[in-house]
Amino acid sequence: MVAQNSAVFFLFLFCFLFIFAFSGVEGLGKGEQKLFVFGDSYADTGNNRIALASSWKFPYGITFPGKPAGRFSDGRVSTDFIAGYLGMKTPIPYRWRKQLAGRVKYGLNFAYGGTGVFDTRAPYPNMTTQIDFLQQLINDSVYTKRDLKTSLAYVSASGNDYANYIAMNGSTAGFPAFISSVVIQLTVNLRRIHGLGVKKIAVGSLPPLGCLPANTAPSSFQRCDQTQNALVNLHNQLLLQAVTNLNNQTNSNSFFILDIHGAFSTVLNQTQAHQGPTFENPLQPCCVGVSAAFSCGSVDENGEKKYTLCSNPKSNFFWDSLHPTQEGWRAVFSTPAFQNSLNQLWLN
């Protein structure tokens, strides 16, 4: 009987923690709109496998919800802030749709950390497959045409295709042609989401990848890699052209760019006043592996920590080698660049 009661208690606790972990930044909404999210770790709120992903390991989630819950940060990520601004509940991760079926009515998050437009990380689904998941839910009548017509989509493509390209090729040689292929496929994906019936689709511009801690570590987190940032600029130029063409081809204002690049640059350079938090050394991450062989959350075979952790994540823009802290995302959200692009999505 004691064992049975314990099992019931832990089942209740498990469900409570996941409901708590998938709550976001609440705001004032417009009716029954839903938010569908596609992409990678900048947007993932818990799709990755618990046994494989660092996002389910301590110290991830220490700020929110207080323990690891699948977000690649100490707390909330871009999806939470966007949903809150739009007055929506943070959509639950696709993989928890059956356990939390009552939350499906608010939309779903199909984003998986580590994924890209193309195949970048097995066994996680690329963006095309993520859209297939939504297509299947429509076929199964989980969502109707009316649901889709009043919904919004957020698409995050934050550089995993390019990191994978460098890992496979060893350099940035041939990058411009590959960038073009990424944007072409991303355009196909955006058009397909629109074809499913979603009338407003926001895609994030690529952040300055050369300023990620993974790329500033050689300079002790003091200087960005300007070669990579120049390639990022090419991606964003092609993306702007693609979104403009999509709106012209569909005779609509359905497609928007969320200016993540401009927002990151504002915070990292600290050259433009904004109402959000500022950081003494914005390139310095809070959680750092003790060597190149280890990353945030790593432990050895004896459970010994192989990373260092800052005393207060709020003091750092970056959480680990790739991802902002919750306070970093709050700063991004607070910039004029990001606010203006969100206002376009909201008001049009």
Automatic annotation (TrEMBL):
Keyword Signal appears in the UniProt entry? yes
Q: Name one GO molecular function term.
A: hydrolase activity, acting on ester bonds
InterPro entries assigned: GDSL (IPR001087), SGNH_hydro_sf (IPR036514), SGNH_plant_lipase-like (IPR035669)
Query: Which keywords accompany this UniProt record?
Result: Hydrolase, Lipid degradation, Lipid metabolism, Signal
Q: Indicate the secretion signal residues.
A: 1-27
In its keyword annotation, does this UniProt entry include Signal? yes
Instruction: Share an example GO biological-process annotation for this protein.
Output: lipid catabolic process
Entry superkingdom: Eukaryota
User: Which Pfam family is an annotated match for this chain, by its short name?
Assistant: Lipase_GDSL
What protein family is recorded?
Answer: Belongs to the 'GDSL' lipolytic enzyme family.
The name this protein carries in UniProt is: GDSL esterase/lipase
Organism expressing this protein natively: Hibiscus trionum
